[in-house]
Design brief:
Residues 1-101 form the Nitrile hydratase beta subunit-like N-terminal domain. The protein is mostly helical and 113 residues long. Helix content is 54%, strand content 0%. The chain has a single domain, classed as Cyclin A, domain 1, CATH 1.10.472.20. The radius of gyration is 15 Å and the shape is globular.
Length: 113
């Protein structure tokens, strides 16, 4: 059974490669996205979790979050959930940041404004 992340080959999702992207470096629309990418790499290299853990965490995102959030916001949700599961941050901290994001004042708000 397909879930929300299984959209390969489906019509209606637009281009996958951003206009102007030449494939030579990551695309960051704002500085927080660059920091999110660095945090992800540090958690993988540091052994906090594996790339498979990360993939599974992204796949567990609620469809409404998966389809309405930017690429790096999806990364944030996945990494933050794993940090809760590993005891790095508390569930309350996670919920508070989600509330800030939903209100447009948290991580990535500048990318959506």
């Amino acid at each position: 059974m397909n879930s929300v992340h299984d959209c390969g080959g489906d019509d209606g999702f637009g281009r996958i490669i951003p206009d102007g992207y030449d494939g030579t470096e990551p695309v960051f629309k704002s500085e927080w996205e660059r920091r999110m990418c660095a945090l992800f790499m540090a958690t993988i290299v540091g052994g906090l979790f594996t790339d498979e853990d990360f993939r599974q965490s992204r796949e567990r995102l609620e469809p409404s979050r998966y389809l309405t959030r930017s690429y790096y916001e999806q990364w944030w949700f996945a990494v933050a959930r794993l940090m809760v599961e590993k005891g790095v941050i508390s569930p309350a901290e996670y919920r508070a940041e989600i509330a800030r994001m939903d209100a447009g004042t948290g991580t990535g708000a500048e990318a959506r404004s």
